[in-house]
Amino acid sequence: xxxxxxxxxxxxxxxxxxxxxxxxxxxxxxxxxxxxxxxxxxxxxxxxxxxxxxxxxxxxxxxxxxxxxxxxxxxxxxxxxxxxxxxxxxxxxxxxxxxxxxxxxxxxxxxxxxxxxxx
Length: 119
Known about the structure:
By secondary structure, the protein is an all-alpha fold. It has five helices and no strands. The N and C termini lie far apart (about 40 Å). Keywords: Chaperone, Mitochondrion, Transit peptide. It is found in: Mitochondrion matrix. Its main location: mitochondrion. Belongs to the complex I LYR family. SDHAF3 subfamily.
C-alpha cells in the first residue's frame, strides 16, 4: 500500500510542478495548457501500469523541455517543439484527434490561446 501512496505523491508533484511552470507562459497559452494538463491527468487516473509509466515519462520530458525553454538561460523566444513523424506514428486515432483539437484551439482567433498559437 505504501507504493500506491508514493505513486500518487509523485503524480501530484508532477501535476503541480507543470501547472506552476505554466505560470511562465503567456496568459492565453497558460489557460490552454492548464486545461489540457488537467484533462489528461484526470483521463489517466484508471490507467494500467504500462500506460502510467509511459504517461509519467512523457509528462516528465514535457516538464524538463518547458523548464529549459522558460528558464533564465533560454536561447529561443519560442515555446514548444515539433513532434517527429516517428512519434506521431505511435499515436492512436484518439490521440491524433486530441492533437487536432489542440491545434485548432491554439490557432483559432478568440479561442483559449488567442492568435498566439503554439507549435
